[in-house]
């Protein structure tokens, strides 16, 4: 018998530069998750997956999943484990929870993710970033931190397709406007095109506002098999219709093209196939806008516009409310911030709310939503498609 999987609750802590520990953020996120669905009892949750990239280095904590289980009042009996795939840890954990429920190994699983990244020893997070690249090649070439890598991507896209700095800035202006209406986001104020264009240069052509921040915070969702989900919520069910995940060429020397992300295209095609939809069917999308150029390329490689047309696509507002596919309606990484293990889960929460019809900024009639998460040297990508109905 086919086992359909639903998202029945979701919540997040306040994201930003926070006092407090990783424990505090997980507890805040779990409480927000329980508050989102008062019918949900922690005793009904039989599994827990915890997504965190840097818990050892910035929180000096291993054995995280059993500890989080105690923090949030869950007693796992089907699965209790940590998932790590750097920036895509959260979405990878959701995919694994989905597979466990789909296969019958679990029925109700909480997926929680987050980080404590602001520490007195600020270099700790950068050492961890360096540890995510291939030491023998990219580390020795100085390519260990994201801004230089994505600056090269932006330069190549500009050279190859005529993308302009104004196109990059349009993404930042949109996402900061969206985050200004999201009380949980790191940035609560919008920015103007002039502010973005004249922002402090980080790595040319990327200014301060073209780059997402690192963040303290956590998020949590609960997935359940459909039969139990119907009895555990009085809100509209949101189904996971399809998933895709791919990793190609994590070492820069093996990347054939900096402006076409093959792993993203593979993951997207797989998710579309399983969900039985096409790009034109997506009503709302959350993509991994770690840098403004990222959202532009993601519009192309997810199939929302033709290759090379991402710049004009965003400048024309086609990724905004009223456009072809409203994207990062809660502010994305540029506005909400980026506690690595929490980002993919935040994306799922926003899509869940959009499809339930109770988002802060609602896309009218949204019925199918997509999330995209990436990690590493633009190498590993996840795509999930959610719907108000099963595939």
From TrEMBL:
One MF term in the entry's GO annotations: acetyl-CoA C-acyltransferase activity
Domain Thiolase C-terminal: 244-388
CDD domains: SCP-x_thiolase
Ranges where the Thiolase N-terminal domain occurs: 5-226
Source organism, top-level taxon: Bacteria
UniProt source species: Desulfomonile tiedjei
This protein's name: Thiolase family protein
């Amino acid at each position: 018998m086919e086992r359909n999987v639903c998202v029945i609750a979701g919540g997040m802590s306040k994201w930003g530069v926070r006092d407090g520990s990783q424990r505090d953020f997980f507890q805040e996120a779990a409480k927000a998750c329980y508050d989102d669905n008062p019918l949900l009892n922690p005793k009904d949750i039989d599994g827990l997956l915890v997504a965190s990239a840097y818990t050892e280095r910035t929180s000096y904590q291993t054995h995280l999943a059993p500890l989080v289980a105690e923090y949030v009042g869950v007693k796992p009996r089907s699965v209790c484990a940590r998932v790590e795939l750097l920036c895509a840890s959260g979405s990878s954990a959701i995919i694994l929870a989905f597979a466990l429920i789909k296969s019958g190994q679990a029925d109700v699983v909480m997926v929680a993710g987050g980080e404590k990244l602001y520490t007195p020893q600020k270099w700790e997070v950068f050492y961890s970033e360096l540890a995510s690249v291939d030491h023998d090649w990219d580390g020795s070439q100085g390519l260990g931190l994201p801004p230089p890598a994505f600056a090269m991507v932006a330069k190549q896209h500009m050279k190859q397709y005529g993308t302009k700095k104004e196109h990059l800035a349009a993404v930042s202006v949109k996402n900061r406007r969206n985050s200004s209406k999201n009380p949980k986001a790191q940035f609560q104020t919008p920015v103007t095109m002039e502010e973005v264009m004249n922002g402090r240069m980080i790595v040319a052509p990327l200014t301060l506002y073209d780059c997402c921040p690192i963040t303290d915070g956590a998020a949590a969702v609960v997935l359940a098999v459909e039969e139990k989900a119907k009895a555990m919520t009085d809100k509209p069910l949101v189904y996971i219709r399809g998933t895709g995940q791919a990793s190609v060429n994590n070492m820069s020397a093996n990347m054939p093209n900096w402006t076409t992300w093959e792993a993203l295209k593979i993951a997207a095609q797989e998710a579309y196939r399983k969900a039985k939809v096409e790009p034109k069917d997506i009503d709302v999308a959350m993509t991994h806008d770690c840098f403004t150029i990222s959202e532009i390329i993601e519009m192309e490689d997810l199939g929302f516009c033709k290759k090379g047309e991402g710049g004009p696509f965003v400048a024309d507002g086609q990724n905004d409310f009223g456009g072809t596919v409203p994207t990062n309606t809660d502010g994305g990484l540029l506005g909400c911030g980026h506690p690595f293990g929490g980002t993919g889960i935040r994306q799922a929460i926003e899509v869940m709310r959009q499809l339930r019809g109770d988002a802060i900024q609602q896309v009218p009639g949204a019925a199918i939503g997509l999330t995209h998460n990436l990690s590493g040297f633009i190498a590993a990508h996840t795509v999930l498609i959610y719907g108000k109905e099963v595939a």
